[in-house]
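Worked example

This section walks through a single chain of length 457. The input is the sequence exactly as stored; nothing has been trimmed or padded.
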Amino acid sequence: MSFSEWTHGNEESGSAAGWRSRRQQQEVIWPDAGAAREEISRLARLPPLVFAGEIRRLKSRLASVAVGDAFALIAGDCAESFSLLSADRIRDQMKIILQMSLVLTHGMGLPVVKIGRMAGQFAKPRTNAYEDSDVGRIPTFRGHLINSEFVDQESRTPDPRRLVQGYNYSASMLNLVRAFATGGFADLSAVHAWNQDFVAESPAGARYESVADDIDRTMRFLRACGLEDSPALHHSEFYTAHEALVLDYESALTRVDSLTDSWYGCSAHLLWIGERTRQLDGAHIEYVRGIENPIGIKISGSCTPEELLNLCQILDPTRDPGRLVVMTRIGAADVRRALPPLMRALKNQGHNPVWMCDPMHGNTRTAADGTKTRHFEDIMSETVDFIAVAREEGVHPGGVHLELTPEDVTECTGGSWATLEKDLSRNYQSLCDPRLNGNQGLDLAFLVAEHFRGESR
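Given that input, the structure is written out below as tokens.
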């Protein structure tokens, strides 16, 4: 089936194109509709960024997470930038994810499914479509897939040429990610090389070196036994994920798999639907309903058990293992109140999704000087309570979803180096929301592993 036939002639409910007849929250209004159609058609003729076989493999890995045989880590930028694409930065992003995964595996005794919030996280939902500025009323910055962060009317006007730019940046990034994952960089004999200088000097970095020493000893033992040739010791599976927000982009990269005749969203291995776009009758839910990818659903404390059950029934009526990832973003103060009835409702109806904690979005606050920030202790508190509630409800605490950067930024307060509010201005770089730096990410990984195995301090 051609792209034109799929997008215009296949509007039945439950198809990957049926979303066009539904109301679309956070819709991008392109000023030049003709130019937008041209760019979307151009995008649809380009090769897929990821492949159906890779997506099916991730789904099988997430099925293992759902039954308690693995743990999942999603980490990466809040909003990726077109201006920060470099081999060094991609390498450093993978370094911190590999480090955190190693700490979690070492501490939990479970394999970690590694998913980068990268190669596609170029758009963000916003509360307001416009903002007042020194140059007058202008569109809000919505991510580089749509417009620019510069404060002028031209930069903020949605530009459909950015859709193909986003594709090109994602393709370049995925090329490097695949090379790093399979070309020796992810080899367990290189665990000491993953420690960045500013992280190595921190308390978390020192703890990581101790873990790395243990891995070195294990590798020497395996070599002595002649068992060092396992591919799992030298390569790493690495997947990508982003929010399926701009449906013009997602639909143009949706492809039918020649082996199964099923539709796959080929912009990323996993796509999630955010808190602002998960309306039961909305376009975003209708779109992901029609593709076979693993699908994440972000839910806050305002989500009722009935609403979550309806979402699960729409997106996973056959209870397909690995299909759904419920990403809770409730906030440290409310997680013990709001989470138990949600977990209980799904368990009682036979749904067994991956339960994942997003401890970032429910804990955003404003510092005294007006800077948007998050406190590490709140992030950790929500994660710890998530693990505890899951255990009490008899479900597996399956993963964490973090906004994190490899750079030594000062955007979140707290952590083992105790970043203070007065330090935020030293190196605040985020295009949107505050992120953990590499040091704070490692802190969190160690604490999660300790609480997971019941050895919290």
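What to look for: Residues 1-14 have pLDDT under 50 and may be disordered.
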